[in-house]
Amino acid sequence: MIINYRNDQNKVDVPKEAERLLRKALQAGARVHKLPKETEVGVTLVDNAEIHELNRMYRQVDRPTDVLSFALDEADEPAEVGGPDEHLLGDIVISAEMARKQAEEFGHSLERELAYLAIHSLLHLLGYDHKKAADKKLMRAEEERILEKIHLSQDDLGGGLPLADDAQEDLAHALLDGLDKRDVDLAGDSVAEMFEKARAAMEQAYVPYSKFPVGAAVLTDDGTIYTGCNVENASYGLSLCAERNAIFKAVSEGHRTFRMLLVTGNTTAPLAPCGACCQVMAEFKIPRVLMTNAAGDVQEATYAELLPFGFSEEELAEGRGTAEEKHAGETVG
């Protein structure tokens, strides 16, 4: 495959090794999908401002994303391989700033992140998508198949890879596929919006120690959504989870009743809240807890299921009553 590579930004120092690995990743994808050697693809590294403008122009998305794909010869079905003897496949645009940020968040190198984003975008050019849960699963499998060829798969490195950021709008709606029909009727667009906002909040996480960003969104009784991210501290006990950040923000604005809470993280399985957060959910009796991950998988539970023996207002009232009765029986000598 012919790769036309350009680095059109000066915000991130991209070493030669990164370009080499990116080219290697794309060539591995070309071999896996049996693309003819005349197939041509363009790869351009830009900064956040440039990819933000491209998103605004072509996708009506008013924010920077990590990668964009512009297909010129897109296959109708992902199962198709090969193509015409000579063709321009399309263009890949990657934000070097977003790639660096995500590499830091997920604890791997800039080289690995750029290689992954290039593979993800190449599959888009070949007709893969992730709007539906089944398509998303197929695309992730293909990403892993290509990454295995250059020893960057999950099995090789023992960790997960985030789904590229241009998928988030699609993921928010694919997330609903993981809920049964009863839940969709109750939540619908609220869940999709909460997921998008929780993912955005996760990008603001302050996690210099754990490198484990988490985002959360809580839906109040009047339909307002508040978000939170985890914030760490050098004195570990002072750190605050995303779920409690979101709930406390809502409470500080006068809310006391909630419909649901959603939490998300870059994990292979849906992310569960910690016990402290479950206790706060129990305090405000948040009836539904949606645990999700970066791939859009979802699992639902109640706070009682997550914390079956949590403290409650009733238990505290009972304890106070017992103490008062005991005190009332004492005599003063």
Account of the 3D structure:
The chain has 333 residues and is α/β, with parallel strands linked by helices. 43% of the residues lie in helices and 17% in strands. Helix 3 (96-106) packs across helix 4. The radius of gyration is 24 Å and the shape is elongated. It starts with a strand and ends in a 5-residue tail after the last helix. Mean pLDDT is 81; it is low at 74-84, 155-167 and 180-187.
Structural class: alpha/beta
**Low confidence ranges:** 74-84, 155-167, 180-187
Please state the CA-atom Rg, rounded to the nearest Å.
24 Å
Form type: elongated
Strands side by side in the biggest sheet: 6-5-7-8-9
Mean pLDDT: 81
Number of discrete helical segments:
13
The amount of beta strand, in percent, is 15-25%
What is the multimeric organization of the chains shown?
A: single chain
Main beta-sheet annotation: 5 strands, mixed
Write the layout of secondary structure elements.
Layout: E1 2-7, H1 16-32, E2 40-46, H2 48-58, E3 67-71, E4 88-95, H3 96-106, H4 110-125, H5 133-149, H6 154-157, H7 168-174, H8 181-186, H9 189-202, E5 214-220, E6 225-229, H10 242-252, E7 258-265, H11 275-283, E8 288-292, E9 298-301, H12 303-306, H13 313-328
Parallel strand pairs: 1-2, 2-4, 7-8
Antiparallel strand pairs: 3-4, 5-6, 5-7, 8-9
Helix pairs in contact: 1-4, 1-5, 3-4, 4-5, 7-9
